[in-house]
Amino acid sequence: MARNNNECPSPLPESWIFCDDFEAGEPNSNTYFELNLNSGNFHLTTDQSASGNHSMEVQWDTGMVEAGNLKVTFGDAPMKTIYRSDEQFDEVYWRMYVRHQDGWQGSPDKLSRATMFVENNWSQGMIAHLWSAGDVLLGDPAHCIADDVPICTKYNDFIHLKWLGQMRGETPIFSSSDAGQWRCIEGRVRLNTPGLNDGIFEFWIDDNLESSRSDLNWRGAYTDHGINAVFFENYWNAGAPEPLKRWFDDLAIATTRIGCHPTEHFLAKRQ
Question: What is the rounded CA–CA span in Å between residue 247 and residue 229?
Answer without folding.
Answer: 21
